[in-house]
Amino acid sequence: NRLETAGVLTIDELASTKLNVVPKLSGDILDRLQAQAKIQIASEGAETPLYKVVLHDAGRALGLALLPPHSNSDVFFDIEGFPLIDGGLEYLWGVAYFDEGGNRTFRDFWGHDHAQEQQAFIDFVDWVFDRWLQDPSMHIYHYASYEVTALRRLMGRYGIREYEVDTLLRNEVFVDLYNVVRHGVLVGEPSYSIKNVEHIYRGKRDTDVASGSESIVVYEEWRANPDGMTWEESAVLNAIRDYNIDDCNSTQELTEWLRAEQSANNIDYVGRAPDEAEKEVEEETEITSLRDRLLEMSENETDDDKCSVLRNLAWLLEFHKRENKPTWWRLFDRLGLFISYR
Questions:
Q1: Which of 30, 35, 32, 28 is closest to 19 using CA atoms?
Q2: What is the band of 303 on the pLDDT scale with cuts at 50, 70, 90?
Q3: Phi, psi at residue 108, to the nearest 5°?
Q4: What is the rounded CA–CA span in Å between residue 195 and residue 112?
Q5: Residue 95's beta-bridge partner residues?
Q6: Are 30 and 49 contacting, i.e. CB atoms less than 8 angstroms apart?
Q7: Long-range contact set of residues 226-235: C-beta below 8 Å, sequence gap at least 24
Q8: Beta-carbon-side half-sphere exposure of residue 89 (alpha carbons within 13 Å)
Q9: pLDDT in tens, 85-101
Q10: Which residues lie below 8 Å from residue 159, measured CB to CB, with a gap of 6+?
């Protein structure tokens, strides 16, 4: 809208504009938009889009400086979610990683209702947390904010694995490659989704499910008429799983490509070092002890009403602490933006 108000109506006009000032638009953003327009136009008709690494001042936590060094324990993470039921459902948690022999491997955690989703969340967090404890140089790579947002939401919804998720977040174990790309590389594509960016570093996809939105439609059809309850039995779930594997593999390949560009451009990592990891033991208080006893009682209770009361009492004990977490998350997110842009 600001560009149009200044008389710049098309991408070609943006690429060739001589304007130095656009009202309510900073000069840095105008320069970045014009550079994006130029590289997009130059990439039209090309088999592989052009790209250019964006260099920032040394020591600035921005772009490729946010990419940590390689670890053999690194994990490449992608969730398939289904938003068309109350509260949504994170039904497939997929991770690519390398085994001890150096072979790329895939592991998946499934949940087709909220009880199964809770167990998938527990199993995933336990697996990655234990992996990080064994190797603090390990990171969990994902593309865009969906995965971390889902983890935060589910740990609050179910009141479980709060210490583990908070510890991973506090130690900057999760790496959002979208933030690395959007501030670190100019790409001659109309979108910075991973499906567009991967035109640079990998070939064309050949999975039956082609996009995240398509996976929602396919999964909805499966829920209405399941052809099996596991991916081994169901052709539909197997197709979604193949799509998730491809997303995880693409995330891993993107990481390696970015790391090669980081090295070629002599960009140093600016972030927390493994020896700075904070691994405090979760403190058990009278409240947490009482919470655990109430939950144990609820599991042994045969009366559904009494079970519900016991569980509600258990979660009420830490209600205010749990409700305050999003406030702290927003604070740290904003502090991260300040550090990046100062």
A1: 30
A2: confident
A3: -130, 150
A4: 26
A5: 77, 107
A6: no
A7: 229/112, 230/110, 231/108, 231/110
A8: 20
A9: 998 999 999 999 999 99
A10: 314, 315, 318, 322
Q: Which two tokens stand for residue 22?
A: 């656009």
CA distances from 281 to 127, 133, 167, 328 (A): 17, 12, 10, 21
Alpha helices in 69-188 (DSSP H): 114-134, 146-158, 162-170, 177-184
Strand partners, 140: 75, 174
Q: In one letter, which amino acid is 106?
A: F
pLDDT tens-digit series, residues 273-300:
776 666 655 555 677 778 778 878 888 8
Decide if 94 contacts 245 (C-beta within 8 A).
yes
pLDDT in the model for residue 212: 80
Other CB atoms within 10 Å distance of the CB of residue 329: 15
Residues contacting residue 285 through CB under 8 Å, at least 6 positions apart: none
* Predicted model pTM: 0.85
Task: Please say whether the beta carbons of 241 and 36 come within 8 A.
Answer: no
Helix (H, G, I), strand (E, B) or coil at 4: helix
Which tokens go with 340?
Answer: 């990046």
How many residues does the structure list for the chain? Answer: 342
Dihedral-angle region of residue 244 (phi above 0 means left; psi in -120 to 50 means alpha; beta otherwise): alpha
Whole-Å CA distances, 67 to 102, 147, 176, 228, 334: 21, 18, 9, 40, 19
